[in-house]
Amino acid sequence: MVNTKKWGLMRVISGKYKGRKIIVESKSDYRPTLTRIREDIFNLLLHNNDLNLDINEVILCDLFAGTGSIGIEALSRGVKKVIFNDIEKNHTNKIEKFLKEINEINYEITNFDPYKQKIDILNNCHVIYIDPPYDHAFELIQKKILINIQSNILVILESSNLINLDNLILKKQYKNKNLFFFRT
Length: 184
Known about the structure:
Radius of gyration: 15 Å
CATH superfamily: Vaccinia Virus protein VP39
Helix content: 10-25%
CATH topology: Rossmann fold
Order of helices and strands: EEHEHEHEEHEEE
Distance between the termini: 45 Å
CATH architecture: 3-Layer(aba) Sandwich
Strand content: 15-25%
Strand order of the largest sheet: 5-4-3-6-7-9-8
Number of strands: 9
Number of helices: 4
Structural class: alpha/beta
CATH class: Alpha Beta
C-alpha cells in the first residue's frame, strides 16, 4: 500500500498508457508538470501545423526529466523514442522501473548535467523539452545548452519568466507558467 502522506500520484492523460499511475514523491527536488500543461503540449504537438511534426516519427528528449511525466506521456501518445535525462540517478531509476513495468522499450536513460556536459545525443532529437527543476535564467540555458544543439530542433521551454525570442513559433501562458515553442 502506498503511503499517501509521502507520495502523490499523477496519471497518464491519453494514449496507450492512459490512466496509468506515476508515483511522485511529495517532498522532492522537482515539480511535476501540471496535467493541464501536459495536455496542452501534446495537443499542440499533435494538431498544430506550425510545429510541422509527425508524432510517430519524433524522438523527444525530456532534458530535466524529474518524474518522467512528459516523456511517459509522449510514449503513450506514440512517439518513436524518448530520451529521459536527469542528473539525479534516483529520478531516472524510478522512471526506468515504471517503463519496465509497462514493457516499454522505446526509450533511453541518461544522467548528464546539461550545464556542464555537451550532450551529443540531443542532436538526434526532433523535440527537446526543457523544464529545469528550479527556474534557471534563460541566458544560462542559452549559453550552456542551446548553443550545443543543431539548428531546426523544436524546443519546448517551460518557465515562470517571460522571454523574448526571435525564433518563437508559439507561446502559451498560464497563471504562473509559460510555454515557449521555438526552433534552434
